[in-house]
Amino acid sequence: xxxxxxxxxxxxxxxxxxxxxxxxxxxxxxxxxxxxxxxxxxxxxxxxxxxxxxxxxxxxxxxxxxxxxxxxxxxxxxxxxxxxxxxxxxxxxxxxxxxxxxxxxxxxxxxxxxxxxxxxxxxxxxxxxxxxxxxxxxxxxxxxxxxxxxxxxxxxxxxxxxxxxxxxxxxxxxxxxxxxxxxxxxxxxxxxxxx
Length: 195
Known about the structure:
Elements: H1 2-23, E1 42-54, E2 57-68, H2 69-85, E3 105-107, E4 116-119, E5 128-135, H3 138-148, E6 164-167, E7 173-181
Antiparallel strand pairs: 1-2, 1-7, 2-5, 3-4, 4-5, 6-7
């Protein structure tokens, strides 16, 4: 009988050993995988109007719209018509003047690089147009935008394949550049000051 009680006294130690042994199993392997992501067409369109000829570099007004391809395409006709209304754009100290299409609104800039924001509609997914002014020649700006989509750079030989001209009410023409892809780098759409 005494021997049985001696075994009962060992039970807590045996249980503790089992619990410790169970806790020492190797940690489960963590597995990772990349889920396929849906590629959404992104579009960047910028109209460029020559502003001032600063020595050794041109200066431009940029009217840039970017975002989901379907949303941008819905407002493209109005965008082109709006660009055609732009006038009084030869003084970069003051905003050009324009006539907004019905339902569009103008907002204050959100960064120092922006001069104005144009909302193309009331919805959250309505594309915005950023108005800005910067330097650099046409090829440099086109390649900056193409680079945002990981597209090969344009060259002087194929430069004219990368834009079309839009007449404005002043008789001058705006360069209209459109870049389309699926690897758009967000936050990189604003021009950088020319060196």
